[in-house]
Amino acid sequence: MKIKEGYRLRKVGNNSIVVAVGGINFTGLITVNETGAFIWKMLENGAEPDEVVDALAKECEVNPEAIKGEVYDFLEKLKGADLVE
After folding, report:
1. How many CB atoms lie within 10 A of CB 76?
2. What is the mean pLDDT of residues 2-19?
3. Three-state SS for 35?
4. Mean pLDDT within 31-48
5. What is the mean pLDDT of the chain?
6. Each residue of 1-17: b (16+ CB within 10 Å) or e?
7. What does the pLDDT read at residue 22?
8. Which end of the chain is more exposed for a tag (fewer CB within 10 A), N or C?
9. Which residues are CB-contacts of 34 (< 8 A; sequence separation ≥ 6)?
10. What torsion, rounded to 10 degrees, do the Cα atoms 2, 25, 10, 79 define?
11. DSSP string, 37-85
């Protein structure tokens, strides 16, 4: 899974915001928290969903099964917004 070309994550103050670059017709504003930014950065490098779960679980020192559902929900939201391929 990978973030589609033309979308970038930018830090504005304390917020991480998804912006469209390169002439993409994108209206709206997507902000993500620190966890969302962590996941986004992994997806920029083409990480698969289970890799994201494992890395986030290690970062947060939790059991991967405890966060898997939430990570997959977030990934589905990114798919629904047509931000990943």
Report:
1. 11
2. 92
3. helix
4. 96
5. 92
6. eebeeebebeeeeeebe
7. 72
8. C
9. 16
10. -30
11. HHHHHHHHTT--HHHHHHHHHHHHTS-HHHHHHHHHHHHHHHHHTT-B-
